[in-house]
Amino acid sequence: MQDAVLLKTLRQDPGLGMELLMEQYAGLIYSVVRGKLLTPPFSGEDIEDCVADVILEFYDGLARFDPAKGSIRAWLCTIARNRAVDRVRMQYAAPDTVPLGDIPLSVEGDSPEGELLRREEWDRLLNALRGLERVDREIIFRKYYLSQPSREIAERMGLTVSNVDTRAHRAIRKLRTRLEAASNG
Amino acid sequence: MDERLTEFFDRVSPEELDTLIGDLPLDEEIGRDVLEHIGAKVEAAVSRDRCRGCSRRRPRRGLRRAAAGCTAAVLAAALLLGNAAATQATGKGLLKTVAQWAQSAVRMEEPPIDGFGEDGTAEFSGRRVDITTHTLLVSEETEAAEYCVELSSLTFGEPRWGQRQTAPHAYLYLYVDGQTADFAELKEGERVVFEGRPGTCLLVVVSTVEATITGTVTRTAIGASQGREQP
Question: Could you tell me the domains of chain A?
C-alpha cells in the first residue's frame, strides 16, 4: 500500500490504519529489532514488546510525520533500530558515576573541522552504498541493518549461502575502493 | 569496514535510508501468532499509558479538554458513546483505535438503570472487569434535572496490565449529547450532584481497574437536591 493511502487511513480510521500498518510493516520492524535483541538476555517477548513500542511511537508522532523526510518504511526502521539500541543500552547500562580520568578533555568531532570531516566521510559512504547493485545493497542492508546471518539472507533472497557470502565480500571491497578513491580524489 | 557500516546504519536518517532501500523488496514476514501477540502488547501499552495518566491525574494535553481527570474515562466514553462522537469530543484519533481494541476487554456485566422508583431513586450495583465502566443511566431528558449519585460501597480489585489505582475513589462523568458535561471524583460513602441538561444524558462510573460498586442515583428537579458534597 502506498504511504499516502496508509497515512490517510491512519488519520481517518485509526483502527483500520493501524491494522494495515501492522500487516504491512510489523514483519520488517520485527526483523530490525530482532537483529539487535537476538541474543540472551533478550527473549522473543522483549522483541515483541519493542515492536509494539515502535508502532505506538510512530502512531503517537503521526502528526509530525513528514513524507518528504522519508517513507513510512524508513521511519519505522529508524525508530525500530533506535528503540532496540536503547534496550540494549539499558540492559548494559554503565554505572552512573564515571572516574574523572575517563572523561575526554576534547573530542575531535566537537570541533567544526572534525564535524566537517565526519560529514564528508559520511556522504562518501552513503554515495558508495548507493552505487552498489540492488542485490548487493540488499545483502549489505540485511547483513548490517537487520543483522541477518548469511543463511537467512540466502533464504529470503532466493540465493545460495556461498553466493551471499561472495557478493557481500565483493560489495565491501567495492565500498572500500570507492571510499579510498573518493578521499584521494 | 564492518565497524564503519554498523556505525553508519546506526545513525542513518530515514531520508538517507530511503535512498538505499526505497527500491528493495523488504517484505519480511512474521507468523500470525506473533502478529497477534504484538497487537495485544500495543493494546496493553495503550491501556497502561492511559492509566498512568489517570493515577497522576495529569492526562496528556490532547485529552485534557474532554476529561478533566481520568483518561481511562475517555476511553470508556469512546466505548459508550460511539467512537465517532468520542473522537470528535476529544480531538484525539487515537481514542478511536483504543476503543476498538479495548472493546473486547470491556465487559458490561450489569445493564444501566432503566428507570427510577416513585421517589425518583434507583439503586445500582455491579462488578466490572478490565477497564471498569459502569453506566448508571442513559436517559432522554426534555428538561434540566439533577442527579444525586451516592456511592455506598466501592471496592477495587487487583490492578492488571501494570495498571495503578492509587486513588480510593471512582470517577463519575456526566455526558450530555456526547459531550462531557460534568466530572467528579467520588469516594465510598460520598455523594455528588450532577446537573443534567435536556438531551441524552449518560452517567458513567469509571475506574481503571476492576471494581465492585453499589449506590443510588436520585433524580430530582433542579435545586431540589441537598447540595453538592464533593466538588
Answer: 3-91 (1.10.1740.10), 124-184 (1.10.10.10)
* Cα separation, B21 vs B29, whole angstroms: 17
> Which CATH architecture is the domain B121-220 placed in?
Sandwich (2.60)
B residues 44-83 near A, CB within 8 Å? 44-46, 83
Rounded distance, CA A64 to CA A67, Å? Answer: 10
Question: How many degrees, rounded to 5, is the angle at CA B108 between CA B102 and CA B112?
Answer: 130
Parse chain B into domains and list their residue ranges.
32-102, 121-220
Looking at every residue in chain A, the average pLDDT score rounds to 82
pLDDT band, very low/low/confident/very high, at B179 (cuts 50, 70, 90): low
Q: Which of A114-123, B64-73, B123-132 has the lowest mean pLDDT?
A: B64-73
* Chain B interface mutation, best of A2, A73, A157, highest count of B Cβ atoms under 10 Å: A73
